[in-house]
Amino acid sequence: MQSTTNFPRRAGLTLLLAIALAACGKIKPNAEPEADRERVEAKRQKAACTSPGAYRRLKDLLFDQVIEQYKGHKANLDTLADYSSARMEDPVVEGSDPLLDITRCKGRFILDIPPGAERAFAGDRRLQADVRYTAQAAADGSGFVYQLSQAEPLVTRLAGFNLDSGGYRPPPAIDEQSALGNETVAEGRLAEQNSKLALAQLPASARNQNNVHQVQPDRVEARKAVLPPENEQLRSRPADEAGEAAVRAFYNALSAGDGAAASARVIAEKRRTGAFSPQAISRFYGALPDPIRLTKIVPLGRGAYRVRYRYSAGRSHCDGSALVSLTDSGFIRSIKALNGC
Predict the structure, then answer these.
(1) Residue 112 and residue 80: Cα distance in Å, rounded?
(2) What are phi and psi of 268, to 5 degrees?
(3) Beta bridge partners of 218
(4) Mind listing the pLDDT tens digit of every residue in the chain (341 residues)?
(5) Are 323 and 338 spatial neighbours (Cβ–Cβ below 8 Å)?
(6) What is the rounded CA–CA span in Å between residue 19 and residue 35?
(7) How many domains are there within the chain?
(8) Do 94 and 212 belong together in one domain?
(9) How far apart are CA 251 and CA 180, in angstroms?
(10) Are residues 146 and 186 in the same domain?
(11) Are residues 220 and 327 in the same domain?
(12) Is 36 part of any domain?
């Protein structure tokens, strides 16, 4: 009789235990997603404080402050920014504001100066300061928007920077020169003679004494386009076309950052070292965020060509012009930059 009475009691206990275990089973799956969300958020906050992209944006903010607050030389500072690298020692997440989606960070900001630029900083190759910064998710989902504070020690040191970029920037593929040399002057005179010759062959109705001295070398090609049929020999000859193709191939290789292909089009004695070596070309042109683009090429005669091109290293930009001289076999003998880049 007693065992019969205990059976419903044991059955009730078993049922209660089953319900309790089921409840635990339901709670556990809910707890795991919550823990996962916390881990994901912690990882996101750490990336906001410690990623290379964060350091690049903080570097831009630093140089923006220098230019805005101290009216620093923008072109020089932009070039210095492009060839300096930023990193952070001991970066940590200080906290966050979930409502505003802001992560607060701190660390020791280090700006590594390119070789040659240390002359402007009493020989220091590294500028550093303890800073604080925040990262807030952009409204358009493009990443984080940063704010930098306590960077005054860096700002004041950078404010007086006025070193010419030629002292520290990796060399582009041009011949180094402090001023236009005799060869460049001769090429410029040749271009002027060609342009005057083209103008002289125009019909009398198209000539005007007032514009004889206004013809520029880079307008020669436009003049040739309107020459009368009897002066067909003044148009681009096959040699000019072959040389132009060689020049275009060289700049196409620069655009691709292909140092080996570009250097192979230069005379042998310039390929081994310096700005025309494969390594130097790849290092400079391969790192450009906005690759070099040839925008114009004008034959000047006797293997000389005037070119225009554009590229950007990030903050700094080049709208360049140069005189390119070829050998009779079609290799590049020299490139004389007309505006420093």
Answers:
(1) 10
(2) -55, -40
(3) none
(4) 444 555 455 555 555 555 555 555 544 555 567 778 888 999 999 999 999 999 999 999 999 999 998 887 888 899 999 999 999 999 999 999 999 999 999 999 999 999 999 999 999 999 999 999 999 999 888 889 999 999 999 999 999 898 877 778 888 999 875 334 444 444 444 444 544 444 344 444 434 433 333 333 343 343 333 333 333 333 446 667 899 999 999 999 999 999 999 999 999 999 988 899 999 999 999 999 999 999 999 999 999 999 999 999 999 999 999 999 999 999 999 999 998 78
(5) yes
(6) 25
(7) 2
(8) no
(9) 22
(10) no
(11) yes
(12) no
Rounded to whole angstroms, how far apart are CA atoms 107 and 53?
15
- Contact criterion met (CB below 8 Å) for 135 and 162: no
147 strand-pairing partners: 134
Do 86 and 109 touch, CB atoms closer than 8 A?
yes
Yes or no: say if 172 and 275 are a contact pair by the CB < 8 Å rule: yes
Q: 207 and 126, same structural domain? A: no
Residue 216 lies in a domain: yes
Report the DSSP beta bridge partners of residue 326.
Answer: 332
Q: Which residues pair with 111 in a beta bridge?
A: 86, 127
Q: Which residue has the tokens 């970066």?
A: 91
The range of the structural domain enclosing residue 193 comes to 182-337
Residue 306 and residue 231 share a domain: yes
Domain co-membership, 295 together with 251: yes
Provide the b/e sequence for 15-35 (b: ≥16 CB within 10 Å). eeeeeeeeeeeeeeeeeeeee
Q: In this structure, are 201 and 322 located in the same domain?
A: yes
At position 299, the amino acid (one-letter code) is P
